[in-house]
Amino acid sequence: MARADQTPGIRPRATLGRRLDRAARYAFPAGCTVLLMLLAEAPLGIADQAAMLPVVTLACVYFWSLFRPGAMPPPVVFLVGLLFDLLGYLPLGVGALTLLTVHGLAVRWREVLIRQGFVSAWLAFAGFAVGSTALGWALTAVLVFRLLPVGPALFQALLTAALYPALAIPLIRAHRTVADPERA
Amino acid sequence: MIRLSIQARQALGKLTLPVLVAATFGLMLLGKADALLAEHARMALADALVPIYAALAGPLGAARDTVAGATGLWDVSAENGRLRAENEQLRRWQSIALALDAENQRLKANLHWIPDPAPYYVTARVVADAGGIYARAVLLSVGPNHGIRKGEIALDERGLVGRVTEVGARTARVLLITDMNSRIPVVLENSHGHAILIGTDGPRPRLVYWAEGSMPQEGERVVTGTEASAFPANLPVGTVHFSTAKVPEVAPAALLDRLEVVRIFDYGLTDMAAPEAPGRLPERRGR
């Protein structure tokens, strides 16, 4: 309720339905992230499907950290990262740390990034994709104590950067419609 | 709910991220200290998800087949011609194989050959890729009382797929022969030379440690060897191909990128499986 008190004005009475609607809109970013992650692991029969999980996870966490940090707070990012580690067979903690880093930097720079428009946000995301894949690669290599091949990591970073618009455009629509708490 | 001042709330909000980052480092240490914890968590999650994926596999497969059928209509006559030619060739091979089989049976009967015991096997559906970026593995959906153990051997209809590395209540994870951690003793069929097949995470694992004088040859068949009694002899693995850098690689016989159904064989050879409790050495590893 504290959040509702911050904005002055006349608003309709908070009935149960309206409260549920509001809660659903707040839960949408985390919910759609987890759902997309589970979908990326479903037996779709796409070649190199293992590369899809990092793509959707990183794109969703970046997007919602940028546009709705209130609904993608650090504890949620941590839990998403834990799910990422378990689903993606990474050493525990690697995905959580990379996602928290992406989240922290995206929230810090969001004022600048949002004002610049879509293409700049995409370019910045490409940088995030390369940085987070490199961090994940280095951490995994240290934790399994072995030099990992660079090829898959490079492919991963490029794929993540390239597929961002395909995920971001529906997410922008959702951000303005179904996920907007102001419309509750 | 506890009423906090705005400053206290802001200070707490600023602290969350550093505390969680510290927690991830703790998690990494925990994952290193207790490797079974992560494995159990993964298999529990897989057990929960596999029924959903198994239910999805049917309609998704049907949709894929429809698309494949529609695209296949374009070159149906060319495909038909190719299949006719292949069928002719296979018929010739079949007659040779039948003759050889009969001869083999006759010779074995004359020699009082002790037949190999028929292994017990179960068939399971592949429901998900379980590899991630740096591993090559698949997740199988198996029934609740499956009796599958670590170290059992997975084959598809063409050849060796890999070995079972983790077993859950309804799932089993199979590490493919292309995985970086895969090491398989093999025999080159022409020279009967031994070698080790190591995975590279690429589509073709490499051959190393072949004996001097038995250099792998292009197109040679590779079958499993019995070193360390991890595998039975003569399971088909693939054929030798030299890469552009003159490195002998093996093109796997199994269709590792399109696995749908695999058979899990129990040859009673689970000596080389990972130890159940961390720190306890398996009894026969030193052989």
Largest sheet of chain A: none
Q: What share of residues of chain A is helical? A: over 70%
The main sheet of chain B orders its strands as: 1-2-5-4-3-12
- Cα separation of the termini of chain B: 64 Å
Compute the gyration radius of chain A: what is it? 18 Å
Structural class of chain B: alpha+beta
Oligomer: heterodimer
For the record, the CATH architecture of the domain at 183-253 in chain B stands as Beta Barrel
CATH superfamily of the domain at 183-253 in chain B: Rod shape-determining protein MreC, domain 2
Write down the CATH topology of the domain at 183-253 in chain B. Answer: Thrombin, subunit H
Give me the count of strands of chain A: 0
Shape by Cα distribution of chain A: globular
Low-pLDDT segments of chain A: none
Mean pLDDT of chain A: 87
SS elements, strand count of chain B: 12
Strand portion of chain B? 15-25%
Number of helices of chain A: 8
List the chains of the largest interface with their residue counts.
A-B, 46 and 42 residues
**First CA to last CA of chain A: what distance?**
14 Å
Largest sheet of chain B, in brief, is: 6 strands, antiparallel, barrel
Low-confidence stretches of chain B: 274-287
